[in-house]
C-alpha cells in the first residue's frame, strides 16, 4: 500500500522527517525515499530498496546530506519515489500513495502528446511520475491535482514539496487518509497519525476527500474544498492501520476492540480462552475476551526483532515461509486447551492452514477462529491492499468455482451473511483448515465498530459495492 510523511518548520526538519516517515514502515517494504528543500542546496533526494532491510538502517547514514526546513518522505510498495520535477509550475518533489488501474491507457495518452517517461520502475512506467505529468498540465497546482482526480481510476493521495512549503492532497474519494499535525512552529501531513505523538505534533485536521491544503511553518491554507462523497477503505481499521492511528477521528485499536467485543457478546461457542494472531488480531481478541467473559492468553507470540509483515515478499513460497517463521507457538499455553483465535482476514488461507496445523501439533484440543471482517469476495480495484493479482487467488473464489463451476457466479449470495451459499462456503473453509468452528464478522458489526455511515466507507471487497 504505502504511507507518507511531510513537514515544514521554522527550524531544520530532517529529524522529524526521518522518524515521521519511519512510522509509516508497516505500510510497505519495497522502497523508501526522502526529499528536502533548502534555499542553499535546492532539492535533495534519496531512494533506497527496503526489501532486504529496514528504512532506518538504509537512511541513517544518508541524513547528513539532507538540509532545510521542509521535506517529504515515503514508504512505497510500488514505484521508486520521490520524483523531482522542473516545470512551468516551478520545481517540486512529489510522493504518492496510489493505485492507478488505467495506468497503461494514461501512459499512451501522454506519449501521444509528445511527453516522455524517465523514471521507469522495473521497466514499467513509474506511476508517481505519471501523476506528476498530469499535474503539470494544469495552470496551477490545484488545477493539476484536479486533472489527476479527473483522469485516474483507482486512488491517489499525494504530497508536493515546493520552494514555498508543502501541498497535501487527499484522494478524491478519500480512499486513503491524510492527517494534518501541528506543533509550535511546524506543520506535518501523514498517512498515519501514529507518526505524531513522539514528535510532539497534535492532530489538527483530517483532510476531506479531494481536499487540498498548502502548509507553511506557521499556516495551513485550504486550496480546494473537500468533496461530499467519501469511500475510505474499511481495511485500514481491519488490517493496515497501526493501533495508535486514527482516521476520521476513529482509532484503529478502538475499532478492533469494539469489533471483537460485539462478536464475543453474541458468540455461543464454549472455549477456554481467546488469543490474537499478531499483530492485527490482538486488539480484536482482547475485545472478544471481554465480551465473552473469558481470559485472553498469548498462545502465539511474534518474533519482532527480525521478521517483517508476511504479505510483502512477491514470491508466494517465501511469503509463506516468513509467515511461519515470524510466529512462535507456546506449547505451555496451548496444550489440552479449547482455543479461540482472532485474526484480521483470510485472503488465500495459506497462513491459516499452517498456523492451525501447528496448534494441533502442540496439543490444542479445539481450534476456533473468528475473523474481524466478512469474507473477501472481490479483489480491490481501488487501493493495493494485498499482493493478489486476481480474484481467483482468494480462497472464497476458489471454493465458489468448485461449487458453481464459475468463480463469478452468484457472488451476491455468497457475500450475504447467513445465506445457504455463504454458510456452505464458510463450512468448507473451516473443514479444509481443520477448524472446530469458523465465524466471520458481519458487515453491519464492522461498520458499527468503525462508527461512520455505511455510505462513507468502502466495503467493495466484501459486497462488491463500487464508487468511481
From TrEMBL:
Domain (Glutamine amidotransferase type-2): residue spans on this chain: 1-218
Keyword annotations from UniProtKB, A to Z: Glutamine amidotransferase, Glycosyltransferase, Iron, Iron-sulfur, Magnesium, Metal-binding, Purine biosynthesis, Transferase
Keyword Nucleotidyltransferase on entry: no
Signal peptide segment: none
Cofactor(s) required, per the database record: Mg(2+); [4Fe-4S] cluster
Uppermost EC category: transferase
Xref: SUPFAM superfamilies: N-terminal nucleophile aminohydrolases (Ntn hydrolases), PRTase-like
Gene3D superfamilies: 3.40.50.2020, Glutamine Phosphoribosylpyrophosphate, subunit 1, domain 1
Pathway assigned to this chain's UniProt record: Purine metabolism; IMP biosynthesis via de novo pathway; N(1)-(5-phospho-D-ribosyl)glycinamide from 5-phospho-alpha-D-ribose 1-diphosphate: step 1/2
Cofactor mode of binding and number, as noted: Binds 1 Mg(2+) ion per subunit.
Domain of life per record: Bacteria
One Gene Ontology molecular-function label: amidophosphoribosyltransferase activity
Keyword NADP applies: no
Catalytic reactions on record: 5-phospho-beta-D-ribosylamine + L-glutamate + diphosphate = 5-phospho-alpha-D-ribose 1-diphosphate + L-glutamine + H2O
GO process annotations (BP): purine nucleobase biosynthetic process; purine nucleotide biosynthetic process
Entries under InterPro entries matching the protein: GATase_2_dom, Ntn_hydrolases_N, PRTase-like, PRTase_dom, PurF
Residues annotated as binding Mg(2+): 280, 343-344
Annotated binding of [4Fe-4S] cluster, by residue: 233, 380, 458, 461
PROSITE patterns: GATASE_TYPE_2 (PS51278)
Family affiliation: In the C-terminal section; belongs to the purine/pyrimidine phosphoribosyltransferase family.
Protein name, entry field: Amidophosphoribosyltransferase
Amino acid at each position: 500500500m504505502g504511507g507518507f510523511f511531510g513537514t515544514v518548520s521554522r527550524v531544520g526538519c530532517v529529524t522529524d522527517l526521518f522518524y515521521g516517515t519511519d512510522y509509516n514502515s508497516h505500510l510497505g517494504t519495497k522502497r523508501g525515499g526522502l526529499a528536502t528543500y533548502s534555499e542553499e542546496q535546492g532539492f535533495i533526494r534519496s531512494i533506497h530498496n527496503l526489501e532486504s532491510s529496514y528504512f532506518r538502517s538504509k537512511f541513517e547514514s544518508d541524513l547528513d546530506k539532507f538540509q532545510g526546513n521542509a521535506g517529504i518522505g515515503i514508504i512505497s510498495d510500488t514505484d521508486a519515489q520521490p520524483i523531482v520535477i522542473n516545470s512551468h509550475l516551478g520545481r517540486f518533489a512529489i510522493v504518492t500513495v496510489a493505485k492507478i488501474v488505467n495506468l497503461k491507457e494514461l501512459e499512451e495518452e501522454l506519449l501521444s502528446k509528445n511527453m516522455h517517461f524517465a523514471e521507469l520502475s522495473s521497466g514499467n512506467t513509474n506511476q508517481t511520475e505519471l501523476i506528476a505529468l498530469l499535474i503539470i498540465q494544469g495552470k496551477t497546482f490545484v488545477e493539476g491535482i484536479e486533472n489527476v482526480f479527473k483522469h485516474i481510476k483507482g486512488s491517489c493521495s499525494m504530497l508536493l514539496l515546493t520552494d514555498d512549503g508543502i501541498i497535501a492532497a487527499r484522494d478524491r474519494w478519500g480512499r486513503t487518509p491524510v492527517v494534518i499535525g501541528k506543533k509550535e512552529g511546524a506543520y506535518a501531513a501523514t498517512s498515519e497519525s501514529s507518526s505524531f505523538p513522539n514528535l510532539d505534533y497534535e492532530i489538527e485536521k483530517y483532510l476531506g476527500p479531494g481536499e487540498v491544503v498548502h502548509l507553511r511553518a506557521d499556516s495551513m491554507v485550504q486550496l480546494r474544498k473537500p468533496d461530499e462523497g467519501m469511500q475510505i477503505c474499511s481495511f485500514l481499521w481491519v488490517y493496515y492501520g497501526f493501533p495508535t492511528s486514527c482516521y476520521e477521528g476513529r482509532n484503529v485499536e478502538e475499532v478492533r476492540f469494539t469489533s471483537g467485543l460485539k462478536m464475543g457478546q453474541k458468540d455461543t461457542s464454549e472455549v477456554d480462552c481467546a488469543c490474537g494472531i499478531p499483530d492485527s488480531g490482538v486488539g480484536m481478541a482482547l475485545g472478544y475476551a471481554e465480551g465473552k467473559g473469558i481470559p485472553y492468553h498469548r498462545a502465539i507470540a511474534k518474533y519482532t526483532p527480525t521478521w517483517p509483515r508476511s504479505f510483502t515478499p512477491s514470491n508466494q513460497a517465501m511469503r509463506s515461509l516468513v509467515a511461519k517463521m515470524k510466529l512462535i507457538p507456546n506449547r505451555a499455553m496451548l496444550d489440552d486447551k479449547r482455543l479461540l483465535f482472532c485474526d484480521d482476514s483470510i485472503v488465500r488461507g495459506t497462513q491459516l492452514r499452517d498456523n492451525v496445523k501447528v496448534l494441533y501439533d502442540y496439543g490444542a484440543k479445539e481450534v476456533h477462529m473468528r475473523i474481524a471482517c466478512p469474507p473477501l469476495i472481490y479483489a480491490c480495484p481501488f487501493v493495493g491492499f494485498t499482493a493478489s493479482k486476481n480474484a481467483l487467488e482468494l480462497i472464497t473464489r476458489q471454493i465458489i468455482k468448485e461449487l458453481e463451476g464459475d468463480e463469478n457466479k452468484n457472488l451476491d449470495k455468497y457475500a450475504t451473511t447467513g445465506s445457504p451459499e455463504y454458510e456452505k462456503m464458510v463450512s468448507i473453509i473451516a473443514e479444509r483448515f481443520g477448524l472446530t468452528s469458523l465465524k466471520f464478522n458481519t458487515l453491519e458489526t464492522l461498520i458499527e465498530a468503525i462508527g461512520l455511515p455505511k455510505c462513507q466507507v468502502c466495503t467493495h471487497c466484501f459486497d462488491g459495492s463500487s464508487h468511481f
